[in-house]
Description:
This protein is an alpha/beta fold. The chain has nine helices and twelve strands. A hairpin with a 4-residue loop joins strand 9 (about 210-215) and strand 10. It is rod-shaped, with a radius of gyration of 40 Å.
Amino acid sequence: MNRPLARPAAVAPAAPPLRLAMAPRRVWRLLLLGFGALALAAAAVWAVALGLPQRLLLAAAVASADAGFAVRQVIVEGDRRQDRLSIYREVLSGGTDAMILLDLPDLAARLARLPWVAEAEVRRIWPDTVKVRLHEREPVAVWQAGGRYRLLDAGGRPLPMLPAAEIAGLPLLVGAGADAAAPGFLRMMARHPELAASLVGAVRVGGRRWDLRMKTGETIALPEDAAAPAALARFAAAHAARPLLGQGFARFDLRIEGQMAVRLTPEARIEAEKRARARLLAPALPPAPEVRT
């Protein structure tokens, strides 16, 4: 018996092929330009690495700059006192703005020569940004010499002056050569915070030693530089055991090793003489009679 042929199962219609819209010409052009710029930058890097002739290096650098790898932005951090315009001037002072030709060590060295800059960190942020981070110098003393006032940092390097309100409380160092001797002097004073807090200023004497002027009016004459730290340490220990400042003394002379000569203020000398005279003129009192009950 002839059986009817089985009807084949319905076959799902095939999914239409996925069609991607072609990117507009403008998008393709941007992509090609981007790849081209990367290629030019890579070529410039290889030119530097391989030491190719200067003409070829410049050509590659100019091409990369034209493609967008040129300094367009400068980011500065850490500038509190250094004029920002001077920083921009150093960054942009090269003969070209091509990112690849930036000499970062040379730029950092030039920035470190600015008055307030102690150290500069410079790096590229591709494609068009230079980031500068500054570590500035701190004023620690005022130096007076030849009728002029200058600020000094901890290394004795002169700094531009600041408004009086910003430098109130800094010690005044006076005399020729005080700037060169300042680092050692400031390190010595830092070991004795109580004395440093009472210091008004110091005078450089003969280029060899210091006279300290204290807030309470005394002068402390230190010996020559080599012996000064030990002499000041002895004075600080004596002052800690029994206060010496603010007690009517005018001068402490520590120039002779192991000794301290003192001089009273005129007012204290007068008072001391009065007390001594009173003791000499006081009549000797007879012993009190014995009382019997």
